[in-house]
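Please think about what follows:
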Amino acid sequence: MEFTLLEAKTMMNWHMVTDSEMVHLSLPQRFFEYAQAYRNAASALCLTMTSEDEACIWPNATVVMLLAAHATELFIKGAILARDPTAMIEHHRIDDLSVEYRKRFPEPSFEWDIPFKTEWPDIAKAEIEALKKTVPIPSILYRYPVGKGGEEWNGAFGFEPNSFIGVLGQLKRDFDRIKVQIT
């Protein structure tokens, strides 16, 4: 059996990682730690996309966006649970989580431009509710190449990694700023 130099080096330097470092943390802290890890992974792949042409492909773009969206979702859930441990937030809709976050954190110091929210300017409330039922949530849209039944996603999609690095940097700064106030 042949191994690359990197594989051989990796096998010689095993580092067992377990969940034992997490068991002493509160539930909100666990959400924050996972949010940070997902954001870090999004940032690492996004940086690779900015420097390696062969990595700058749509599947990688969707992975970056999925990881960043999931980081956002988990961070909001952690914050909500820090203020209200009984909150029922067992869904993945960032728009709805954002509303719950803002109810619990109205103070100006907790304000942030939450990414992956859908904006509905100049549309009637009834029409918004109807549209919400047809728009896939990021955790579905970015996870699968097509919708149910193999149907193409409805919309035009694009991604520019150099500009998204800035979004990920701001996400980190917002996470750090808000988390320090909560924990």
